[in-house]
Amino acid sequence: FLHRRNDASTDGSSVLASIRVSASGEPVLVSELAFPDRHADESWRQATVHQGTQAFYVVTPSPSGVTPQTSTIEVFDTSDPGGALVRGTTLEVPGDVATRTQLDEYDGVLRIITPNPPPPDSGFSLAPTVRTYRVSFPGQVVPLGSTEVILPGSYMDGFFRGARAYVVAYDSVREGLGQRLLTLVDLADAASPRPGGSIDLFGERSIGLAFDTSGERLLTLDFDTREENYGLELTLYDMRDAAKPARLDGVRLLDRDWTRAPYDSGFVFLEDAGLALISYSVDLRGCGMENADVQFVSIGPQSLTVGGSVGASGQVLDARAPHDRMLLSYS
Q1: Residue 188 and residue 194: Cα distance in Å, rounded?
Q2: What is the DSSP letter of 176?
Q3: Selection from 105, 110, 118, 111 nearest residue 53 by Cα
Q4: Distance (Å, rounded) from C-alpha 165 to C-alpha 258?
């Protein structure tokens, strides 16, 4: 794990520690590596971390106000089964890696999404870049390939799933379509990343995205707060063809019901049970007396069916469906 020490012996360094744990004994410290903090005075720009299969990555963006923006990625080899840590290379990449979802290791390849500098007349990046690197040991990375993802609007976020990257953009240009766009990048050949197809996401705000285990189906839960379009939509997509993801079905919820609104993260996908659970806050009397509700939606191979709902004590954080029971945990 990664932690900070603020005593005089380390001068505020970050420390990566390896600890052996077992069911029968006390935890044992195996190895520690201390390294200087970068821009430690900017607490709001603290490092993000990612644990790969045999490496640990510590990512620090450059200080605010510095242009062009870059990010420093420090690589630590964790492949030793005994727990020894080896400090590897330090990699500088263009752009701001501000969230851990922008970096991922898969099948021995490090993948990174970084927004490019915005054009002079805009404060938003229009074309993020996806970069790939081959990871070798001890803790070395070699550039493989990259591709620029041309977007119709401003870059919002990026993440990875299996051999693909996904880039979310805010699209304020096209009339009559979703305001956000999800674009796929095919990383099956890591040395030659290729932008694929796109999905128009419904509404202004995403509540959740969930893939099934195979990665072939995607569920999106989106919320539109504009008066003329107010509502919530759960949509099922077929993601097998990276060049042409296809919408299979969608169900509209909360049509102009101003007494109900979804929680920001109240979305749980139970693949084994074939269910999606959506948490609402409910103003029962239109006067701010909040309760909560959980809506059930059945998920078929190519269709969605709205089921019943149950009263709840708050936002559903997690759920399990053993046999014929449903176990919910609330906030």
Answers
A1: 9
A2: T
A3: 105
A4: 36
Task: Using pLDDT thresholds of 50, 70 and 90, give the confidence band for residue 104.
Answer: very high
Contact 219, 201 (CB under 8 A): no
Tell me how far apart the alpha carbons of residues 192 and 130 are, in angstroms, rounded to a whole number: 10
The tokens of 151 are what? 């977007």
Structural tokens at position 267:
């979305």
Question: What distance in Å separates the CA atoms of residue 248 and residue 300, rounded to the nearest whole number?
Answer: 10
Cα gap 142→135, rounded to integer Å = 7
Query: Quick check: pTM over 0.90?
Result: no
For residue range 161-187, list pLDDT tens digits in order.
999 999 988 776 555 455 778 899 999
Contacts 24+ apart (CB under 8 A), 84-87: 84/18, 84/30, 84/31, 85/16, 85/18, 85/31, 85/32, 85/33, 85/56, 86/138, 86/139, 87/33, 87/35, 87/139
Report helix, strand or coil for 269: strand
Q: How far apart are CA 162 and CA 164, in angstroms?
A: 6
Helix, strand, coil % (nearest 5) of the chain? 5, 55, 40
Phi, psi of 26 (to 5 degrees): -75, 150
Q: Are 319 and 326 in contact (CB under 8 A)?
A: yes
CA distance 305 to 326: 18
